[in-house]
Automatic annotation (TrEMBL), chain A:
The gene is mrpl4. GO terms for biological process: translation. It comes from the Eukaryota. InterPro entries: Ribosomal_uL4, Ribosomal_uL4-like, Ribosomal_uL4_dom_sf. It is found in: Mitochondrion. This is Large ribosomal subunit protein uL4m. HAMAP family: Ribosomal_uL4_B. Coiled coil: none annotated. GO terms for molecular function: structural constituent of ribosome. Gene3D superfamilies: 3.40.1370.10.
UniProtKB/TrEMBL annotation, chain B:
The lineage of its organism: Eukaryota, Metazoa, Chordata, Craniata, Vertebrata. The keyword Mitochondrion applies. GO terms for biological process: translation. The keyword Iron-sulfur does not apply. This is Large ribosomal subunit protein mL51.
């Protein structure tokens, strides 16, 4: 019995050992796949090779540390529905290739959910419930249990003894550098998972929402798209197209945050947005600690 | 219990030799089953995850970092004025409310609030281990 079980175990180990030799894409024989499954290996576009003929449209403005190299990505366009890239762009590694700190992402996401939260749940205590000042019956003689008021918590219609009390706030602030690092980690994670796309500008040929949906479907971007742009002016076509779309949303670059990046599957940035974000997020790596809040004037900031 | 009945029926399907005896067993209820009765599994409520509020949640939370520190995320909070950018236990909240809004309150509400402050002060500072 022991020899039979040993043989069985060695057979399973040999099968697993041989599968590790034959390559990365060996599927188990008993796997059932649905017929309309899209193959993710086909969808992942490879990063730009070193000898790519397309022009380099953007270099990093800030100095890149010598032990790191800039991240290279494709720059695409929304004008044409096909997915041919226009050129390459270099992104700063200290913003887009940071370590994927999931604990910082969790902290920032929890902060975003809770710091604005005001719970208006409120109950009345026995002293606040209307009535109940008089002793309902004499202490002795009536045969019933002794009570002092009809609004005590053991009575029906009485006050709640340990219930929620009035509007409560759950406000707290994370340190500034933690929130900045959360943004950097979120951007790096989107870049590493191939969900970040750089676009030269947001001009679209038609204000038709179906054009955007077809473009997203054709390029296999994902279910939901977050488009980020610097400045106040957005192209009219884009605003009209995204007005009635639920899963494609446009926000200004000041509104970028970890929760929106996690909620939307794909994040689309323009080249100006990348410059703006790098500028804002890299400053915190080499700034002095504030002597007074940053909203008061400093000689060298902004 | 209905659980016992189910087990009996399962047991009956396995042993076929004594099947005739066990198949006639009835479910025994001792009257202590839970009172919620459901004829079917209730449907999940349909929640739209992409409403305007849900898809735009959290936008402008980093307005300080990305907007030159002219505004602070605490300016975005929608709250009564004595709770904006403030966290405290019940006594601290009530004292702050009395300081900021007390002279605008209705007489009954103010009286109740003062009674509650008095009670909580005595509770926290005179009763229990932590004074």
């Amino acid at each position: 019995m022991l020899r039979v079980s040993l043989l069985l175990r060695s057979g399973g180990a040999a099968r697993r050992f041989s599968s590790s030799f034959s390559g990365a894409s060996v599927l188990p024989p008993n796997l059932l796949l649905p017929s309309n499954l899209v193959d993710p290996a086909r969808l992942k576009r490879p990063p730009p090779p070193a000898d790519c003929p397309l022009p380099l449209l953007r270099k990093c403005d800030a100095a890149v540390p010598s032990h790191l190299s800039p991240v290279q990505t494709w720059v695409e366009t929304l004008q044409r529905p096909d997915g041919e890239p226009l050129g390459l762009a270099q992104l700063h590694p200290d913003v887009f290739a940071v370590r994927p700190r999931l604990d910082i992402l969790h902290d920032v996401e929890r902060w975003q959910r809770n710091f604005k939260r005001i719970s208006h749940a409120s109950t009345k205590v026995r002293s606040e419930v209307r009535g109940g000042g008089k002793k309902p019956w004499n202490q002795k003689g009536s045969g019933r249990a002794r009570h002092g008021s009809i609004r005590s918590p053991i009575w029906r219609g009485g006050g709640v003894s340990h219930g929620p009390r009035g509007p409560t706030s759950y406000y707290y602030m994370l340190p500034l550098k933690v929130r900045v690092q959360g943004l950097k980690v979120a951007l790096s994670s989107k870049m590493a998972q191939d969900f970040l796309h750089i676009v030269d500008s947001l001009n679209i040929p038609t204000p038709d929402p179906q054009y955007l949906l077809d473009l997203v479907r054709h390029r296999h971007w994902g279910d939901s798209v977050l488009i980020v742009h610097v400045g106040d002016e957005f192209p009219e076509n884009l605003l009209q197209a995204t007005e009635n779309l639920k899963t494609v949303n446009v926000i200004p670059a000041i509104g970028l945050n970890v929760h929106s990046m996690l909620k939307h599957e794909v994040v689309v940035l323009t080249l100006d947005t990348v410059k703006f974000l790098e500028d804002k997020l890299l400053w915190h790596d080499q700034r002095y600690t504030p002597l007074y809040p940053f909203k008061l004037p400093y000689a060298d900031f902004p | 219990m209905s659980v016992l009945g189910g087990l009996l029926r399962a047991g009956a399907s396995f042993c076929q030799s004594a099947g005739t005896l066990l198949q006639t067993a009835r479910t025994i209820s001792t009257g202590t089953c839970c009172r919620i009765r459901m004829h079917a599994i209730p449907e999940l409520k349909k929640v739209d995850r992409w409403t305007e509020k849900r898809s735009m949640f959290g936008v402008y939370d980093n307005i300080g970092i990305l907007g030159d520190f002219k505004a602070h995320p605490k300016d975005l909070i929608l709250a009564p004025c004595w709770l904006k950018a403030f966290k405290g236990n019940e006594l601290e909240r009530l004292i702050r409310k009395k300081k900021m809004v007390g002279d605008r309150m209705m007489a009954v509400d103010r009286h109740n609030m003062e009674k509650r402050i008095r009670f909580l002060y005595r509770h926290f500072n005179r009763i229990g281990k932590h004074r």
